[in-house]
Structures are given as structure tokens and as C-alpha cells.
Amino acid sequence: MKSDKNKTKVLLGLSGGLDSSIAAYLLKQQEYNVIGGHIHLYSKSNTPNNKTENLEKIANSLDIPLYTINMEKEFKKYVTDNFINEYRKGYTPNPCILCNRFVKFQGLLDLADRMSIKYIATGHYANVYKKRGRYYLKKGIDKKKDQSYFLYRLTQEQLSRTLFPLGNYHKREIRNIAKQLGFEVSDIPESQDVCFIENNNYYDIVNKHSTKKEAPGEIVDKDNTTLGYHKGISKYTIGQRKGLGYSFKKAMYIVDIDAEDNKVIVGSEQELYKDELIASDLNWIAIKNLDKKIKVKAKVRYQGKEERAVLIPIKKDTVQVKFNKKIRAVTRGQSIVFYKRNYVVGGGVIR
Questions:
Q1: pLDDT of 9-35, one tens digit each?
Q2: FRET label pair with 153: which of 89, 107, 319, 342, CA 20 to 30 Å apart?
Q3: 70-87 pLDDT per residue, tens
Q4: Regarding beta strands 9-13 and 119-121, do their DSSP bridges make them parallel or antiparallel, or are they unpaired?
Q5: How many angstroms separate the CA atoms of 8 and 194, rounded?
Q6: Closest CA relative to residue 139, chosen from 104, 166, 161, 110
């Protein structure tokens, strides 16, 4: 067996969750010299801070050193502030996607550079492979846990230095490994999707961190007939039916949000369906750029189904996406990710 001095070093993002803990174990089994790096994103003043103790306990049980990377400023800039600004525009953002690209992965790479470590790793369910000089992002084999959707904004540089130890495992296998190691699986938390929002209360965080509080406005139909009044547009999202505060003669859904006029537009479920959209803020992985029409499969939300579509370049950072059939609740601000077979072509933000 190699000594630690002769093993390839890898800096692993250790969150304290089950997946990253087992990722560390698997890397050690592959004879990597694993160093733990915990990304500190934000502080909660109203909750007891026992996370450090839990992280140290996990690191000690795995016999790996642990470093903390303070990314509070970057998290505020790229995630929290963006989240608030997008909701102010009537959009519904994906904060985890920006966090991965600009905070977590970049924070790990910056520390890795300072420590002269070539590779980083995380507990995501995905894979990376190299073909013809380009790095591809491939789906994890566990279809229910595949997280490639959340990683589509990673750069070629980031992918070239990233290992995903869990990419060829199913979640049940990871839980079994944890039990075999004597970990109390129920004691190790699952990662949260929107970690900085308590009780899914988006309205509170938007108003807490904004100098200008949201004002009430009209709820209207497509003909601009006033049907009621809302309490602030950040309380609502496309496709929402419950929580409007009114009983209508027929089922009504939020079909659009007009931030400029501070209006929430409602309509029938049929009005939720669209067969095309515009996406911008593009990031390409499998190709350098898009210069002609291509056929792909596309997902407009993480838990959504992949649908056949055609991408049509409009300008450098914008594409038109035409689906083979109408898609329900296409939501501005959400990410759309393009796939070919089992790898990510690229993606962008729905506008």
C-alpha cells in the first residue's frame, strides 16, 4: 500500500452529509490522500452551532484532515443577492446551480491551488469523462439521484479537476456502505436543496434583505380584468394554484408574473402549456458554442421529464428552444438543461 506522501492528493468538499462522507471513504479505498474541505456559506445567529463538532467527528472517523473555507462574501454575492434580485423581477431562480459554479467548486479549487492539490471531489451523483480534448459531464447511474442538472454551469477547467466518487453508485448502495462502516445513517443529514431558506419562506428572505419592501398588487386574468389582490410577487410562482387567497368559479393557476406592473396573471391549466421558450446565460459543456440548430432532450426543472426539442441559436448568449410538444409551467428564472443520451450538452436560464 502506498504511503500518504506518494498518494495523489484530492480535496473533498465535506458537508457533513451522508454522500460526502461516503465519498471520502470511497476515495480512500482508491488510495487517494483525502483532505476534507468544508465550505462555510453563511451564519445563523438564532441556532446552536454544532455543525463544526459533527464535521470534526466525521473527519476523525475517516482519518482525514479538515479545513474550513469561508465563502460567506461569495455566497452573498453570487447566491443570496442574485436570488433576491431574480424574485424581484418575478423570476424563480435556481440558487444551488450558481452556488456550485461560483462558490462551492471555485472555493475548493482556490484552496486546492494554495495547497498544490490537483484534484477536488464532491458527493454529487454525476460523472466526468474526457473525449477528444474536451471534458463531458455525464449523468450519475442512479436516475432518481442524478444531479447533472445542478452542475451544468461548471467550466471545462472545473470539470478537468473534479472527481465524482458516487457517480457509479445508487443511493441504496451508499446507505449500505454507511451501515457497514457503522455510521448511524439516520444521524447523518441529507443535503438540503435551498439551504439558506427556512421553512421554504421565500417572501421573508426577499424582504428581509431588501431596502425596498414589496407592495401588494393586482391579480388579473389574460384580459387584464382584476380578480383580486396579491401580497407581493415573491410569494408566487408559475404553475401555483393554492395560496392565491381567493375562490374562483374554476381552477385558476398562476400563468405569468409581471414585475414591472406588479401584477400576478392567472388562467386555466391549459394556459400553462408552452411549446417554445427563450434561454440566455448559456454554458456549453459538450460543445464550444452553438452555431447551428441541434436536436436535444431538455429538462425545464430538476424533477421534470426530458423532452425532445430543437435548439436554435439567436445570438451568442441566447437560444430559442422549440419542443416537440407543449410543456407545463415553463418558469422564467429556472434553468433548462440540454442532454444528448446520458451527457449534458449545456444549459441556460429561461427568460
A1: 999 999 989 999 999 999 999 999 999
A2: 89
A3: 999 999 999 999 999 999
A4: parallel
A5: 33
A6: 166
239 within 8 A of 301, measured Cβ to Cβ: no
**Burial grade of 141 (CB within 10 A; 0-12, 13-18, 19 or more):** middle
Write down the pTM of the prediction: 0.92
Q: How many other CB atoms are there within 10 angstroms of residue 98's CB atom?
A: 22
Binding residue numbers for ATP: 13-20, 39, 123
Strands 273-284 and 343-350: antiparallel
Q: For the chain, what percent of residues have pLDDT higher than 70?
A: 92
Instruction: Identify any residues that bridge with 303 across adjacent strands, giving them in sequence order.
Output: none
How far apart CA 124 and CA 96 sit, in angstroms, is 12
Please enumerate, by residue number, every residue annotated as part of a binding site.
13-20, 39, 123
Amino acid at position 118, single letter: K
Residue in 273, 270, 284, 275 with CA at minimum distance from that of residue 321: 275
Could you give the CA distance from residue 183 to residue 175 in angstroms, rounded to a whole number? 9
Phi, psi (deg, nearest 5) at residue 88: -60, -30
- The residues annotated as belonging to the active site are 99, 195
Domains of the chain: 9-198 (3.40.50.620), 214-267 (2.30.30.280), 272-350 (2.40.30.10)
Instruction: Please give the Cα distance from 30 to 46 (Å, whole number).
Output: 41
Q: How far is CA 321 from the centre of its chain?
A: 21
d(CA 297, CA 5): 45
